Amino acid sequence: HTTVSKRHKGKLENRLKHLYQEQKGRQRKLKQIRKEILEIFTNWVIEYARSYGIKIIAIEKLSFKNIPEWKSSKAIKRFTEWFYSKVRSKLEYKGKIRGIRIIEVNPANTSRYCHRCGRKGKAEKLIFKCECGKYDRDYNASVNIGKRAIKIIKKISQNPESKAQRILLPKIRSVRGLPVLPVCYQ
Q1: How many domains in the chain?
Q2: How far apart are CA 61 and CA 152, in angstroms?
Q3: Which backbone phi and psi does 163 adopt, to 5 degrees?
Q4: Please, are residues 175 and 49 in contact by the beta-carbon 8 Å criterion?
Q5: Which domain holds residue 125?
Q6: Smallest Cα–Cα separation from 60: which of 9, 104, 7?
Q7: pLDDT of 119-162, one tens digit each?
Q8: C-alpha distance from residue 30 to each of 35, 74, 76, 83 (Å)
Q9: Residue 63 carries which DSSP code?
Q10: Residue 110 confidence (pLDDT)
Q11: In the chain, which ranges are E strands?
């Protein structure tokens, strides 16, 4: 039966306090780095769009509910959901200031079908293979997302009774005929 001396106990407590303060400092630095990455990335996307006269940016409407490998890792899932939400809201905020609309598009099957011919292909690691050629997998999905966004915009602009049209049309009319920048977060 051993007891810890008061002096030894005091040293241990001081060491724990010191480690706790170090951890808090690291967390603060990590938080600052995340903020900087978010700022740099969203500024780049908005300025890139502005430089090409793009008025609408289409992004994937992501859902993190059915990702099987994340069932055991709640922290990773929470962080990814949080970061995607931050990117989306920061893009919307900066886009609004610059006159750029952000729309979310359902990404279902965008990486399974060829952006060029529309046929189903195979994704092998970072390459998408189809009968008509090979493409970067993310590029292929991004172009498909852009095409879906264009369909959504056309559908809204052709249906005068659409509630969504009343919300989006004033911003869309000024961009008819301009390209849509597909942004892919895969």
Answers
A1: 1
A2: 14
A3: -65, -40
A4: no
A5: 6-183
A6: 104
A7: 899 988 888 899 888 888 888 888 898 888 888 888 877 765 55
A8: 9, 19, 15, 13
A9: -
A10: 87
A11: 56-60, 101-105, 122-124, 127-130, 133-136, 181-183
